[in-house]
Write a structure and sequence with these properties.
The complex is a heterodimer of chains A (224) and B (426). Chain A is of the alpha/beta class and 224 residues long. Helix content of chain A is 33%, strand content 29%. Chain B has helices spanning 3-16, 18-53, 81-88, 159-173, 180-183, 228-238, 258-267, 275-319, 321-329, 334-374, 390-416, 420-425; strands at 60-64, 93-101, 106-114, 117-125, 127-130, 153-158, 187-192, 206-216, 224-227, 247-252, 271-272. Chain B has 426 residues and is of the alpha+beta class. Classes of the chains: A alpha/beta (224), B alpha+beta (426).
């Protein structure tokens, strides 16, 4: 489902070049729940952005959900992000002043059909247990509820892969546990999940754990 | 992104920032509203000047003998029948209407009933005789020809004279208001070769009655227009020149032939009497300059509205950087983001333009209503000071749209160039 070959990513740095991903090789099978762990600044979020088609300035080959990202036009990349992958962020990134329902519908406005479906949005909101709060704006929701709305938004387009960037980082322990439970349910339903985290509770819920250090994946299971 | 989705997103975006959107649209509305108002005012006043104050027929050219000319010594420069025949033969001339001023002074002493009021007055009168064809279409009573001595002379009053009487003379003297229909048939005494102030000719004083048979834009403004044969008869009986004409009105086959006709008439040693036309042009130019200045001011307001929109959208794009990043993450392309900013601006521009136009029309109605209620009557006071052709309305709304889109250019470019990975990470 996810495959990278020789993935390199670097940023210009006053001292030369800061290498973030250094020839990274990754293979994630369909339906897997993989956690990528590593210290802050190890390139976890960068990896997610590259895999999700948000960052195109890299070297190497990246294939996600059968789509080779290199060579795609900007519009094709947008379509890839819209239909094949979903994102869940640490800071939720909900649009303030829009109701939970409108936030969830957002991907529908950019889809191929061009019709954002309220029914689909209600369906995914029900899936994350928030039907009763569909008219609430983010400020009227708790942290956990906001993250559920963000997950519902990510699920709206029926993605093949869900990319999660520190999804429990802004949540308390109880709420974080609930969100992790939701990810496990989604995994059991067959969704492929790749979560980057530095939290033990999140990585322990994953089927497989990859450790990122100095731009390389050292080994599965945390072993160096 | 389809246009349906774009509209839905614009609606969501503007609705949630209603105050900011209303403020931006208000600027556009002020600019477009003032532009439509001032253009409507300029066009309306210009129309009054053209059609009421200085009515002009684009096909008519007035020629007069030169005030000082060697032509008289070499056989040109005066308008006799031979000159009229030559004028009629000029290329582009369809018809020639001769004019002869009654070359003796005349007075009217009136005492009696004047449309239900008592009137006693004595005034100097100017009279000009014209070929009947010139005023034929405005004759409402009998024939416009010489009825012979002792019978009432048919006369045509100038419509502008009637307007000045109704708006200035009548209110000041508490005389009745007169319509063109009312004055037709009215007769008053005129004594030719008599004056309160000027010297008279050696001939006898002729006592006549002049009966108004029509009201015309082509009538003499400061006097009465009578048949040419009557002017010839009066001049002849007074022993003054009854052979040469004081002027002629040439009717060109169409307005495009006028310059050539003018050129040929000048070549004959005649002058063009374009005083009325020049007055009309000067008045029209004054209106046009004032209108242009006010329209320019309004366009500047629109420009400022565009700058305001640029400011507001730039601030909005900066404030919504994360939101734009999220949109990109869920499938918005750069062109989708750019289109969204432009569409928001277009909505503001169209809404502001439409509101501004409605406000301008309301202000026009209010001004006309106030004018009708509170402004005292004056000559050529129009029912409306405004003219609002469709292209002014469409142009106003289009300008609002253009100002908004121009203001959105840089914010849209900035929004479209945002890096989602960076904005979502930051």
């Amino acid at each position: 489902m996810i495959c990278t070959r020789g993935l390199k990513k670097s940023y210009p740095d006053p001292g030369g070049e800061l290498v973030v991903l250094d020839g990274l090789e990754l293979e994630v099978k369909e339906g897997e729940f993989v956690a990528v762990i590593g210290p802050s600044g190890s390139g976890k979020s960068t990896l997610l952005h590259v895999l999700g088609g948000l960052d195109v300035a890299y070297q190497g080959e990246v294939t996600v959900a059968g789509t080779t990202l290199r060579g795609l036009s900007e519009r094709e990349l947008a379509s890839f992000r819209n239909s094949l992958v979903g994102f869940v962020f640490q800071s939720f990134h909900l649009v303030p002043n829009l109701s939970a329902l409108e936030n969830v519908r957002l991907p529908g406005y950019f889809g191929q059909q061009g019709a954002s479906s309220s029914a689909r949005a209600e369906e995914v909101l029900a899936r994350v247990g928030l039907s009763h709060k569909k008219e609430k704006v983010p400020a009227q929701l708790s942290g956990g509820e906001r993250q559920r709305v963000a997950i519902a938004r990510a699920l709206y387009s029926r993605p093949k892969v869900l990319f999660c960037d520190e999804p429990t980082g802004n949540l308390d322990a109880v709420t974080g546990k609930e969100i992790i439970g939701l990810f496990q349910e989604l995994h059991r339903e067959g969704l492929t999940l790749l979560a980057v985290t530095h939290e033990e509770r999140m990585s322990s819920a994953a089927q497989r754990v990859l450790r990122l250090k100095a731009g390389r994946l050292l080994a599965d299971g945390g072993a160096e | 992104m389809t246009s349906r989705s774009l509209l839905a997103l614009v609606r969501l975006s503007l609705f949630r920032d209603r105050r900011g959107a209303a403020f931006s649209a208000f600027g556009v509305a002020m600019g477009v509203g003032s532009l439509v108002f001032f253009l409507g005012l300029g066009l309306g006043v210009g129309k009054v000047v053209r059609e009421k104050v200085f009515p002009q027929d684009a096909r008519l050219v007035d020629v007069v003998p030169p005030t000082l000319s060697l032509g008289a010594f070499i056989g040109g420069g005066k308008i006799d029948q031979a000159a009229v025949d030559r004028l009629a033969a000029l290329p582009g001339v369809e018809r020639v209407y001769r004019k002869m001023t009654v070359r003796v002074p005349a007075v009217s002493r009136y005492e009696g009933d004047f449309f239900g009021a008592r009137l006693r007055m004595g005034v100097e009168i100017l009279a000009v005789g014209v070929d009947p064809g010139l005023v034929k279409k405005d004759i409402q009573l009998g024939e416009f020809s010489d009825p012979g001595p002792g019978k009432p002379i048919p006369g045509v009053a100038a419509s502008r004279l009637l307007e000045i009487y109704n708006k200035s003379f009548a209110p000041a003297r508490r005389l009745p208001q007169l319509s063109p229909t009312m004055v037709v048939g009215f007769a008053f005494p005129v004594e030719f070769n008599r004056s309160f102030v000027a010297a008279t000719a050696p001939g006898p004083i002729t006592q006549e009655q002049v009966q108004v048979v029509g009201v015309s834009d082509r009538g003499l403004l400061a006097g009465i227009t009578i048949p040419l044969e009557v002017a010839v008869r009066i001049n002849r009986s007074a022993g003054v020149d009854a052979e040469t004409f004081t002027g002629a009105t040439l009717q060109a086959v169409d307005p495009s032939a006028v310059p050539r006709v003018v050129e040929e008439a000048k070549r004959m040693g005649l002058q063009i009497d374009d005083q009325e036309r020049r007055l009309a042009e000067n008045a029209g130019a004054a209106v046009a300059v004032t209108t242009s200045a006010l329209a320019l001011l309004s366009a500047l307001i629109c420009l400022l509205a565009g700058v305001n929109i640029a400011h507001a959208l730039s601030a909005s794009v900066r404030a919504r950087a994360k939101e734009i990043g999220v949109m990109q993450a869920v499938g918005a392309s750069r062109s989708d983001v750019r289109d969204l900013v432009f569409a928001e601006a277009a909505a503001l521009g169209l809404f502001g333009g439409a509101v501004g136009t409605v406000l301008a029309v309301a202000a026009m109605k209010a001004v006309d209503l106030l004018s009708a209620s509170y402004l005292p009557p004056f000559p050529f006071k129009p029912d409306t000071f405004f003219a609002l052709p469709w292209y002014v309305v469409a142009g106003g709304v289009a300008l609002g749209l253009l100002a908004a889109l121009a203001g959105a250019y840089f914010p849209a470019r900035h929004a479209a160039s945002m890096d989602p990975a960076r904005t979502l990470a930051g």
